[in-house]
Amino acid sequence: MKLSIGIVGLPNVGKSTLFNSLTKNQVEARNYPFCTIDPNVGVVNVPDNRLEPLAKAVKTEKIIPAVVEFIDIAGIVKDAHKGEGLGNQFLANIRECDAIAEVVRIFENPDVLHVEGAVNPTSDMDTISMELIFADLQTVDKAISRTEKLSKTNPKQAEKELVVLKKVKQWLEDGKPARTLLSQKGFDPFENEEKGLNPLGELNLLTAKPHIYIFNVNENEAANPKLPKTNEDYVVISAKLEQDLQDLDEAEQKEYLEELGLKDTGLDRLIREAYEILGLITYFTAGEMEVRAWTIKKGWTAPKAAGEIHTDFEKGFISADVVNWKDLAELGWTGAKEKGKVRAEGKDYITKDGDVMVFKFNVSK
């Protein structure tokens, strides 16, 4: 599965500069609002230091890492839901993303204009949050109206759906994103999904998506920044620093990061955070042809993991030979089998992060 992350924020907070640095693309990044109009898309390899040892162990030079798709979405301003700025143009782009990464400007720079006239991270965060909430309220109101009209033909289903929809509406009206309601104990809008009762499934609410703040700081503050208070997930990145790193080789990057008190790049930290909040893990396939990383959800069974390669693998699944990546990297396939590190797993096996798997299947099933 391909992970897609939408990069959002107010104009001139460093979205496009960050996007350029993460994806090594060169899109417009200038000092005026709405520089980005159409969304820019960039595909980035997921950094994974397990791939090269595996490739050496199975004697292949072909490595295919997992990828993340970053989408640089037009800047959002106050009252965007009413048509201000670019209006609702950004909404469809965000809805297509698995997660939202909101860039919040922390850095001070008199040469870079702020759309509100002054840098105020808390106010900026509130502006974006409310615009997404207002957009979701419009979506929920339309859903309530549709469901009420259908109540004559299926009153029982409509009644159950309206209970959920109205609870979500009240939550949004209280200024709280839908994801915080979905995490509440005892609230499960999908409990009757198998009966066709999933009133939120097709709405694709913006505030229900996993959300990561990217606090964009000055490069000299990246290791010890002053941040606004938040209960949400976040990473600290200096878009300017990430841009400077692009001109350095790997050894120079490492040395520069160490001088600043940092262990890794902003890209590494952002992808790790995204994997964590989305509940994603990586398994591998490894042989003489190639070593490849596959992104799947935590808790997926071996057949479902196999389905990421091809649907026939899942449909005709028989079993999987499984070995931990460290054992394979150290011993190779022959040595791992001789040491009893390779085991056969069936349909109920839950795939673990770092598993290397060989699937056996029958396409005639």
From TrEMBL:
<dbReference type="InterPro" id="IPR031167">
    <property type="entry name" value="G_OBG"/>
</dbReference>
<dbReference type="GO" id="GO:0005737">
    <property type="term" value="C:cytoplasm"/>
</dbReference>
<dbReference type="Pfam" id="PF01926">
    <property type="entry name" value="MMR_HSR1"/>
</dbReference>
<keyword id="KW-0067">ATP-binding</keyword>
<protein>
    <recommendedName>
        <fullName>Ribosome-binding ATPase YchF</fullName>
    </recommendedName>
</protein>
<comment type="similarity">
    <text>Belongs to the TRAFAC class OBG-HflX-like GTPase superfamily. OBG GTPase family. YchF/OLA1 subfamily.</text>
</comment>
<feature type="binding site">
    <location>
        <begin position="12"/>
        <end position="17"/>
    </location>
    <ligand>
        <name>ATP</name>
    </ligand>
</feature>
<dbReference type="GO" id="GO:0046872">
    <property type="term" value="F:metal ion binding"/>
</dbReference>
<dbReference type="InterPro" id="IPR004396">
    <property type="entry name" value="ATPase_YchF/OLA1"/>
</dbReference>
<feature type="domain" description="TGS">
    <location>
        <begin position="279"/>
        <end position="361"/>
    </location>
</feature>
<dbReference type="GO" id="GO:0005525">
    <property type="term" value="F:GTP binding"/>
</dbReference>
<dbReference type="InterPro" id="IPR012675">
    <property type="entry name" value="Beta-grasp_dom_sf"/>
</dbReference>
<keyword id="KW-0547">Nucleotide-binding</keyword>
<dbReference type="GO" id="GO:0005524">
    <property type="term" value="F:ATP binding"/>
</dbReference>
<dbReference type="InterPro" id="IPR013029">
    <property type="entry name" value="YchF_C"/>
</dbReference>
<keyword id="KW-0479">Metal-binding</keyword>
<keyword id="KW-0460">Magnesium</keyword>
<dbReference type="InterPro" id="IPR006073">
    <property type="entry name" value="GTP-bd"/>
</dbReference>
<dbReference type="InterPro" id="IPR023192">
    <property type="entry name" value="TGS-like_dom_sf"/>
</dbReference>
<dbReference type="InterPro" id="IPR004095">
    <property type="entry name" value="TGS"/>
</dbReference>
<comment type="function">
    <text>ATPase that binds to both the 70S ribosome and the 50S ribosomal subunit in a nucleotide-independent manner.</text>
</comment>
<dbReference type="GO" id="GO:0043023">
    <property type="term" value="F:ribosomal large subunit binding"/>
</dbReference>
<dbReference type="InterPro" id="IPR041706">
    <property type="entry name" value="YchF_N"/>
</dbReference>
<dbReference type="GO" id="GO:0016887">
    <property type="term" value="F:ATP hydrolysis activity"/>
</dbReference>
<dbReference type="InterPro" id="IPR012676">
    <property type="entry name" value="TGS-like"/>
</dbReference>
<feature type="domain" description="OBG-type G">
    <location>
        <begin position="3"/>
        <end position="257"/>
    </location>
</feature>
<dbReference type="InterPro" id="IPR027417">
    <property type="entry name" value="P-loop_NTPase"/>
</dbReference>
<dbReference type="Pfam" id="PF06071">
    <property type="entry name" value="YchF-GTPase_C"/>
</dbReference>
